[in-house]
Specification:
There is one protein chain. The protein has helices spanning 3-11, 15-22, 26-35, 40-59, 69-85, 90-94, 98-122, 125-136, 141-148, 153-178. By secondary structure, the protein is mainly α. It is elongated, with a radius of gyration of 20 Å.
């Protein structure tokens, strides 16, 4: 199946069908990772992460696929693998094409997203609930105070600040550990 048909499947909301077509590219990505010293499981992880990045980018209104799906997934997979191995030389980074820079940024954005998600999941249940009510459900502090049985909306606001501070600390610690 050609790229235009796969792209149409994505646009028509048939993501599962589109992804199943993209899985035909997996053997090439596996060969790439294995040729760079990885194992089959590494290749599977790298390919899954590349598909997640592709999916997130396809959801962006300003994203435009400027290459074939194979080229995109191969480049993103190469960056993911190199990043996990921490093997980028300054010369390699300076010699990246415009598309490769875009792919590399996608990989870095995904890593930030994963760190933020991990930080959120490490928060206590009440902190997660409070942040979801405020950010996801756009509830007022008065509504949150009533729902979560805080004595006042000021306490709810203060608790949100403490939860955010804790999430930021977890995020920064995770980021430092990964460097």
């Amino acid at each position: 199946m050609n790229d235009k048909k796969i792209l149409k499947l994505f646009k028509d909301g048939q993501r599962e069908k589109a992804f199943s077509k993209l899985y035909s590219l997996y053997p090439k990505i596996e060969a790439l990772v294995i040729s760079k010293g990885g194992q089959k499981q590494d290749a599977s992880d790298v390919f899954q992460e590349a598909l997640i990045i592709l999916n997130r980018n396809l959801e962006k209104s300003d994203f435009k696929l400027t290459s074939s799906f194979y080229t995109y997934l191969y480049s993103v997979s190469r960056f993911i693998w190199k990043d996990t191995q921490k093997k980028f030389s300054k010369e390699e980074l300076h010699n990246l094409s415009e598309n490769e820079v875009e792919y590399f940024h996608s990989v870095l954005e995904e890593k930030k997203y994963q760190l933020a998600e991990r930080a959120f999941l490490e928060l206590g249940e009440r902190c997660r609930q409070l942040l979801q009510l405020f950010y996801h459900k756009a509830m007022s502090f008065k509504e949150i105070a009533n729902m979560m049985q805080f004595k006042s909306e000021k306490i709810a606001k203060n608790q949100k600040y403490k939860c955010l501070t804790k999430a930021k600390d977890i995020y920064q610690t995770s980021k430092t550990l990964q460097s």
